[in-house]
Specification:
single chain, alpha+beta, 5 strands, about 40% helix, about 35% strand
């Protein structure tokens, strides 16, 4: 039994099924990890462009983004946010749905670009 199964007995079965689906469909999930002292964060997305954009940010900017998102989720009573992102001032704003989850002490922010 894994630690994940101790938290939820259905976890290993689900994770194995997702892995199988990813292999069959060649789906990609990109993750960017950010550490801020003892806190661990992950940015998760299926968008390669968004993943590369998050990776281009400095560590300080990534940490500030985690704090901004964590604050917004804490002050509201909701599970999702819409975040508008502009590459440069005057550019069209691209919107991304952001969801937050916590698992085994790591806070994950899932980014899903809207179409």
């Amino acid at each position: 039994m894994t630690r994940a199964d101790e938290v939820n007995p259905h976890m290993s079965g689900f994770v194995n099924e997702v892995r199988r689906m990813r292999i069959q469909r060649k789906a990609r999930v990109y993750q960017t990890y950010v550490n801020d002292g003892d806190k661990k964060y992950a940015f998760v997305t299926t968008s390669k462009d968004l993943h590369l954009g998050l990776g281009e940010m400095t560590k300080e900017a990534q940490v500030l983004l985690t704090k901004l998102l964590e604050y917004e989720f804490a002050r509201g009573n909701f599970g999702q946010l819409i975040l508008g992102i502009q590459k440069d001032e005057g550019d069209e704003c691209n919107y991304t749905l952001v969801a937050m989850s916590t698992y085994l002490g790591e806070i994950s922010f899932g980014f899903s670009p809207t179409r």
